[in-house]
Structure formats: structure tokens, C-alpha cells
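Q: Sequence in, structure out?
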Amino acid sequence: MRVPLRAFVASLAVLLAMAGLVAQQKAVSPVEKRARSLVSQLELADRRAAAAEELQALGAAAVPALAARIADPRPEVVQVVCEVLCSLGTTAAGALPQLVTAIGSPNPAIVRMVRMTDLAVRATGVTTLCEYEKQQVVQIDADGTEHELVKGKMAWDVDPLPDGHVLLTLYQESRVVEFDDMGKEVWSFAGKTPLEADRLLDGHTLIADAGARRIVEVDEKGNEVWEFAIPDKGCMPYDVERLANGHTLIAVHPGQVLEVDRAGVVVWELRDLEGVFDADRLPNGNTLLALYTAGAVREVNRKGEVVWEVKVKQPNDADRLPNGNTLVGTADSLLELSPDGKTVREDKRGKRVSEVHRR
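A: Exactly. Output:
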């Protein structure tokens, strides 16, 4: 029986389409499949923290699956997607098209989250630093041009915000202050010698309230919504970071790093450190430490084993860059160290650099 030409062509087209679909499915790597599965688990409250932690560990391989979920209408899902993207920093730059589209969302909460995430993942080469004794906050462009953001304030920590505002901890004034791009104070919180403050995706502010020996989270009106009291007497929180899994990482001077859950339970810790000033959780699950008294920048794994260390005189702050280098603020300079521990850049500032980061 002869098959009509039109029917034959139609059948062939269907077969080719099916073959193409099968080939496309085969092209998806196991890592991509795992990322898609984990992103789906972000919808489940009881799986969200573990899924976020594993997505962070997958790094760049997880970005396409995360980017596809930015359009989700549920703020609680978008928030954890954005938290993971922020934790990856500029490694997650592949999600920028979806973030830009989501800025047009009718939901103000989603708009705020994606704008903050856009700031965190967009690579600019801009370095921001607090020069505590010089009483200034400076930005250094990729070409080396310097801009003074704030003058006349002894800021220990700075958190640049998407609208050009900056969030500062004014240690000696016992306040956390937000200034607009004209230098006008638009928000503040009275603490007790605060050292670190981070603006969270939901608009809250997480503060290492050192003199009060506590971590406190406050809403946009300054109402306290969460607190963790440092358990050991004589110890103060110098640094704090909200992790993608919802836990809080705290550098407790002189010698501890604590990871606590929302209930205040310590789920991971390091002890017997020498003058810890800063602790950052890296995408690979390790923790980067600035040890002021020990004179070292150190990376440790989940077991507390040292996997990388460079001797640095009096480091105050350390950030790992996407290229594997490490940016360090010291008692008198800004350093950039290569993975093999060599100094690739040294900028003598003359006074303490208490905070430094680059985007």
C-alpha cells in the first residue's frame, strides 16, 4: 500500500521531533537534573533549608535552575532562590536576565528581593572599604578611581544597598545608620557598640550588637523580631551572616564561630581560635576566617580542618573572590591574595581597613 506523501512527511516530522526531544533530555547532565529537583524542593518548607544548602554547593551548575524559578509568584520561594543566588555572588551572574525581568513584578516584596540580588551577583569590579580611623567609607572602581561615599564617620562595617544608600555600623555612636546617596540619614537603630549589620532580602536588618553580647534582627520599623544571646561570658559577636539555609553564622571574639538555627540551637561550631574578627561561609561549605591575633586568614572545612591558610598581619576582614583570590583588610592596608598565598595586590592605606568587599 502506498503511503500518501503528505502523511509520510507528517510522520517523519513527528519522528524527528521525538528524536530531538530524546536527544535534548539526554543532554541534561546529572548535576543539572539534581539542581532542578532541588529547586522544586524549595516549595516545601521542611526541605527548604537542606535544598538551599545543596544548591549553594552545586555553585554555577545550579544557576539555570534557580534563574527559572525567579518568576515564581510566591515570595517565600523567590526569597530562598534569591538567598542562594546572593550566596554565590557574581558566580550567579547568569541569572541577571531573569532578575531584570522580575523587577517589573507587581509584588513590592519580590521587587525588593530581586533588586538586592541583582546588586549581589552583578560583577562591577568595585571595591568598597571602611577606613575606620580615617573616618571614611571609600569605593574604588575597577580602573582604580576612588570615590568617598561617607566622610567624618567612624564606620566599622558598610553594606551598600541597591538604591545607592549605604548601611553603616557606627561603633562609637552605638548606632546602625542608613544614609541615602546625598548623605542624609534615613534610618537608624540604637544598639550597644554594634560592629556588623546586613540588610536582609525581606527588608530586615541583622546586627552583631557587640556591647550587648547578642545578635538581633530588626524589621524596617526597628522592632526586634529575633535575638540570639552569646552564651559565653566575656565574648562578643564581631561578625554575623545569614546563610542561604536560614541559619546564622556568627564570629564570636575572641575564639569561636557559631552556626545557629532559627530556634537558637547551635548546629555547628569552631572553638579555640585566636582573635576571630570575621567568618564567611563559602559556596563549597567551608568557612573563611580572619584571625586578628593569630595573624592569619584561614579556610576550614566542616570538620574544622585547615585546608588553606596565609599569614597576614592583623587581618580584620576577608572575602573570597570568584576568581579564587582572597581580599583582606588589615591594620594598615588592602591585600589581595592568590590561591597559592602570594600577594597579587597591596594597597597601603596607612590606617585600619575594617571592612572590604568587591562586586
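The chain has a mean pLDDT of 92.
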